[in-house]
Design brief:
There is one protein chain. With 357 residues, this protein is mainly alpha-helical. The chain has 13 helices and 5 strands. Helix content is 61%, strand content 6%. The strands form 2 sheets. Strands 3-5-4 form a 3-stranded mixed sheet. A two-stranded antiparallel ribbon has the order 1-2. Helix 6 packs across helix 8 and helix 8 crosses helix 11. It is elongated.
Length: 357
């Protein structure tokens, strides 16, 4: 009897279940009334997100003249500010946003110089060191073709494990001994120093310091109307603007350093290709170029090879046959004969990190 009564009850409830749950119905807001409270709560959670902030802004735009005036005035002021800070990069002619003054750039350079000198205190070589003298010879030949004014202050840091060199605003040059060993020749080191000087000629420090202002402005405007968290906007700007812009700067420094400085200073531009071939062989980095601030070695080598004919023309058109060039060559040969030239070759591991150049 118990089993039969249960079956009867199931037969009674089946048409009701079919009518409420199993019969196909178009989904609309009224159909939610047939579901229990828990089912309605689940359906509400599955609804697509509504951009309430954007809807509120649209409503304010339609109903509030004051809001429209504020938006138009603010938009005009922002457009005027951005437009007034658009400039061309020296020599290359690339357009960019730069709102940092040269005085502020000099202050950034002063702070970085003091920090660098303090960090590597006791590791800086003496002026009598052959490596220090070699860096000085190269810089004296590069400087007249660099466009920089004034004298350069240069230091060699005795650290064979660090493959790096950089020029701080204000003409402060730092070269690690590890990059000297990797370059092997003065022509190779001239490619490195020409690249670093080009960063200063193009004022990439100003550009990099200006970019956060522009990114913050864009993130604020987008998050105001669409994305409250602004994470998506930051992600797009980082991988769509910041990193590609950094790779453009590196390519620009290669072009200026090799074509304008290295070739016109009577150095062999082909050594830049040989240097990066050694870098590629020693590299342990597997970071894709898309996620890096620097172009990868293979793309860099390909681009340098494409520039070689133009660099050869510039080198041939420069005054490489004057007496000062031969005097420098004699000085270099004499130093090598005395055993004070470039240090012996050694194999150095390079991890391909973005800290290089």
């Amino acid at each position: 009897m118990l089993r039969r009564s249960w079956i009867l009850r199931r037969r009674i409830h089946v048409p009701i279940l079919w009518d409420q749950l199993l019969r196909p119905r178009p989904f609309n807001s009224s159909s939610l009334d047939h579901f229990p409270a828990r089912a309605r709560q689940y359906a509400n959670q599955r609804r697509p997100p509504q951009y309430n902030r954007f809807q509120q802004s649209q409503q304010l735009w339609r109903t509030s003249p004051e809001f429209r005036i504020v938006v138009v005035v603010a938009g005009g002021a922002i457009t005027l500010w951005v437009g007034s800070n658009i400039e061309q990069v020296p020599i290359s002619g690339r357009w960019r946003f730069n709102c940092i003054s040269e005085a502020y750039e000099a202050e950034l350079g002063r702070v970085e110089y003091e920090q660098t000198m303090q960090e590597y205190q006791g590791m800086i070589t003496r002026p009598s060191d052959p490596r220090h003298q070699m860096v000085g010879r190269i810089l004296r030949r590069l400087l007249p073709n660099s466009g920089l004014q004034g004298d350069l202050e240069y230091h060699v840091i005795d650290d064979e494990d660090e493959i790096n060199a950089f020029v701080i605003p204000g003409g402060k040059v730092f070269v690690f001994s590890g990059i000297i060993s990797m370059c092997k020749t003065e022509d190779g080191l001239a490619a490195v120093l020409g690249h670093e000087l080009a960063h200063n000629v193009a004022h990439h420090i100003q550009e990099n310091a200006s970019l956060p202002y522009l990114i913050t402005l864009v993130v604020g405007l987008v998050s105001l109307f669409f994305d409250n968290s602004a994470e998506l906007t930051r992600f797009i700007l980082k991988y769509g603007v910041k990193l590609p812009n950094s790779r453009v700067q590196e390519a620009e420094a290669d072009h200026l350093g090799i074509l304008v400085m290295m070739a016109q200073s009577c150095y062999n531009p082909e050594e830049a290709v040989h240097l990066w071939q050694r870098m590629d062989q020693a590299s342990r980095s597997t970071v894709p170029q898309l996620l890096s601030t620097h172009p990868n070695s293979k793309n860099r080598i390909k681009r340098l090879q494409e520039w070689l004919p133009e660099a050869a023309q510039k080198r041939a058109a420069s005054e490489c046959g004057n007496i000062s060039y031969y005097a420098d060559q004699f000085h270099q040969a004499f130093d090598s004969y005395r055993g004070s030239g470039a240090p012996p070759n050694r194999t150095t591991n390079y991890d391909g990190d973005d800290s290089f150049w």
